[in-house]
Design brief:
The protein has six helices and 17 strands. It has 365 residues and is α+β, with helices and mostly antiparallel strands. The protein folds into two domains: 34-172, Diaminopimelate Epimerase, Chain A, domain 1 (Roll); 175-338, Diaminopimelate Epimerase, Chain A, domain 1. Strands 8-9-10-11-12-14-15-16 form an eight-stranded mixed barrel. Strand 3 (91-95) and strand 4 (104-109) form a beta hairpin.
Length: 365
């Protein structure tokens, strides 16, 4: 395939006798310069912050998460919100981990705040960690990278051969079912029965058919409205807890499924609506983790049976399987393996000008 025709600004400047060094200068700015690498996993964006953040204080990754919530949230809005981001932007801030075996720590951010786990980000960070030389001991055909998330240590395995990275799989923190057949009264829909499962974050699960919807063909707006109504109902009517930390005891969102939970060689589709009505373009890594835990709990899937999970929004696919039984406090749990591909989409340096009334970001809802 031939390259498309391009116009070189450098060539234009040369022809007009303009100093080419001008091309390397940053535009006028009064505030910090925030440098990022953008990637996507299954269509879901990830903005990895390279530089520009002040030091993040805290003795643990969870403490660092609380610190950025309390002291640095304005920078989340600068990078996630318009005009530099958009309503559904997602970000990752690398931090130092207190766990000796961790290669790196990470904080996740989105339109509402800070998550505790993000599978699509882990898949992207696996490639990024090798390509940006964050790990030194590279092995072929896979290199293991230990990533400390707020939910705990996640082990990523990155295909690596001849200096190139490929697919990434990861092993989750213990995933478990919090409750099944929970009845909640959902505004506009009446009584709905949901399951609640944990894959590094807690999700409510319900078939889209219960709302007369299809995750692959219905309007995204209708899916978002239904899922958001379920999330609001569960948050107001169900007391959640987590055996490790109360920082993990919150409902991250609702996943609408096609109802095809019994094991099959055919992909099953879902749409995840999380944070403040944010729509995941991917099948959702932590959501797949939680959904595998739910299927295993119900006896619909066995250990080491691989299922394919398709995004209802983009059609991209992750695979998932339960690989080990374990426990998390009082909950019988499983370690889940999720696999997918991530790709680079660009690099950027963002600046702020004090006179810009929109410099701190805004969102259109």
């Amino acid at each position: 395939m031939s390259a498309w025709p391009t116009v070189s600004l450098k060539k234009v400047l040369t022809e007009n006798n303009v100093d080419q060094m001008e091309l390397t200068k940053l535009p006028p700015h009064d505030g910090p310069v925030l440098s990022v690498v953008d990637m996507h996993t299954g269509g879901e964006p990830l903005r990895i912050i390279l530089s520009g953040y002040p030091e993040v204080n805290g003795d643990t990754v969870l403490a660092k998460r609380r610190y950025v919530q309390d002291h640095l949230d304005h920078l989340r809005k600068v990078l996630m919100f318009e005009p530099r981001g958009h309503y559904d932007m997602y970000g990752a801030l690398l931090v130092k981990s207190e766990i000796p075996e961790a290669d790196l720590g990470v904080l996740f951010m989105h339109n509402e705040g800070y998550s505790t786990m993000c599978g699509h980000a882990i898949i992207a960070l696996g490639r990024f960690a090798i390509d940006y030389s964050l790990v030194k001991n590279l092995t072929s055909p896979e290199t293991q990278i230990n990533i400390h998330c707020p939910c705990g240590l996640v082990k990523a395995f990155v295909e690596y051969s001849n200096g190139k990275t490929g697919a990434v799989r990861f092993h989750s923190v213990p995933a478990f079912v919090f409750a099944t057949d929970v009845k909640v009264t959902v505004s506009g829909y009446g009584e709905i029965t949901v399951d609640i499962s944990y894959g590094g974050a807690l999700y409510a699960f319900v078939s889209a058919e219960r709302f007369g919807l299809d995750v692959k063909t219905s309007r995204t707006r209708d899916l978002v409205d239904a899922a958001t109504a379920v999330t609001n109902a569960v948050k107001s009517q169900v007391k959640l807890h987590h055996p490790v930390s109360e920082d993990l005891a919150f409902l991250y969102g609702t996943i609408l499924t096609d109802g095809k939970d019994a094991f099959s060689d055919e992909p099953t589709s879902n749409v995840c609506v999380f944070a403040d009505a944010q729509v995941d373009r991917s099948p959702t890594g932590s959501g797949v983790t939680a959904r595998i835990a739910l299927q295993y709990h119900k006896g619909l899937i066995q250990l080491h049976q691989t299922r394919s999970f398709r995004s209802g929004t983009t059609g991209t696919t992750f695979t998932g399987k339960a690989v080990q039984e374990t426990t998390c406090g009082e909950f019988k749990s499983v370690v889940v393996e999720v696999a997918g591909h991530a790709y680079y989409s660009g690099i950027a340096s963002f600046t702020l000008e004090n006179e810009d009334t929109l410099k701190n970001g805004f969102l259109l809802r």
